[in-house]
Amino acid sequence: MATYRYRAYTAQGVVTAGTIAAEGINAAIDALYASGLTPFETLLSEAGDGARPSVSQQGRPVWRRKFGRSNKFGLSELTAFTVEMAALVNSGLPLDVSFRVLAGPGTSPKRALLARDLLREILGGAQLSEAMRHRPTIFPQDYLAIVAAGEASGQTGEVLGQIGDMLTKRLEIRNKIRSSLIYPVILLFMSLASVAVIVFVLIPNLSPIFADAGLPLPGILGVLASIPDYWLPLTVYLLGGAAVCTMLWYRITKSPSLALKLDRIKSSVPVLGRLLRMREAGLFARSLGTLLDARVPLMSALQTARSLIVNRYMNAGYADAISRVPEGASLNQAFAGTDLLPPAALQLIAVGEQSGQLARMLIRIAATLDGELQRHLEQMVNLLTPVLTLVIGGAVGALIMQVMSAVLSINNLAIQ
To answer: How far, CA to CA in Å, does 119 sit from each of 93, 229, 244, 299?
Structure first.
């Protein structure tokens, strides 16, 4: 039986410290939770151990401690964390108790660590949105804006539920796209493997026959035959091109004028521009509806929702439309004549303004736009599979025909 030193929160949020004897680190943590404490630091108490392993590291294999631990939050982890947090808060539990549950046994290490960090700041007097704002790599801007609005109106649980639904839909879209891209990716790798076999196996066997006859390899085979001899210059050129593209992209992202021009070009591309406008409109409508539902003043809600628009060119368009609202224009009139919101959305906004249900109508518009965006993305991905099959199959087939033509022409060379 070993002795562990711990620091933990009591039920009143007071930090306490002490020692506990247990068979292992997990048994010590379970005993602390059973006694009503929420541990945030548990260390093995041994004389002379200058660097003691922490809760998250003790009892784990060395290779997992060094390479298997990552505190980076992905969309799936953030979605699960938000859904669990919303369920606990909406069940009537206080915020600190909810985070103690999230940090308790059975939770994944990353979510438990995040819950403990947020709980520490909340017990220190910070608002939930303030604690989350200190972690910009985990919580996006729209997430923070909606949580802050919910806190201001006392509807934290409701807005967390809305955020959980929003993230769940985003996760579904991403998973569907990933699953749809599995076959095209496999097809691409198999085609590259086929080309590699032709270049590094078949062509080297055919080249001596044509060289002895004093004839070049037919068609594109001659070009492919020179690849093994010039792989080093080609690699240098490819790396140089990648470096140039990286520098150019860095310059564009650091220059507001160039970034604005690039966003304008992206928004004017026929298919891509429509999808971008749909995505930004859905984000704007959902954020604005949630903020208005949380009793945030209209202009403050409009400015907050506009700040979440990623595309700089569209952001400027939203700012221009919003500037008409203080002049007396209604929301649907301010966006009329622009391509930022679809006509059907403007009609629903007008109905919402007349009926006093603007917030709910905006959330409904956002759900409709998100569903339409998902359908368009699924159609594009589903169309990508047959197109790639035809293009890659045609290219590989043409290359194989060249090889077969070269093989058949060997008989003519033998006769000569």
So the answer is: 14, 62, 45, 32
Residue 243 pLDDT greater than 90, yes or no: yes
CA gap 55, 116 in Å, rounded: 12
Cα Rg of the chain (Å, integer): 30
Q: What is the pLDDT of residue 13?
A: 62
Could you state, in order of their start, the residue ranges of all structural domains in the chain?
Answer: 2-68, 75-179, 267-372
The answer to whether 4 and 19 have CB atoms below 8 angstroms apart is yes
Residue-wise DSSP of 238-264: HHHHHHHHHHHHHHHHH-HHHHHHHHH
Q: What is the 8-class DSSP label of residue 128?
A: H
Percentage, residues of the chain above pLDDT 90: 8
> Residue 406, SS3?
helix
The pLDDT tens digits for 57-78 are 444 444 344 344 445 678 888 8
pTM score of the predicted model: 0.66
Q: Which CATH number fits domain 75-179: 1.25.40.10, 1.20.81.30, 3.20.10.10, 1.10.510.10?
A: 1.20.81.30
Helix (H, G, I), strand (E, B) or coil at 3: strand
The DSSP call for residue 44 is E
Question: What CATH number does the domain located at 267-372 have?
Answer: 1.20.81.30
Q: Distance between CA 101 and CA 96 in Å, rounded?
A: 9
Q: Are 22 and 2 in contact (CB under 8 A)?
A: yes
* Angle in degrees, CA 30, 88, 41, rounded to 5: 35
Roughly how many angstroms between the first and final C-alpha of the chain, as a whole number? Answer: 89
* Among 348, 351, 346, 350, residue whose Cα is nearest residue 335: 346
Pick from 10, 412, 12: which is nearest to 215 by CA?
412
- Can you say how many angstroms the Cα of residue 245 is from the centroid of all Cα atoms in its chain? 23
- pLDDT higher for 15 or 46? 15
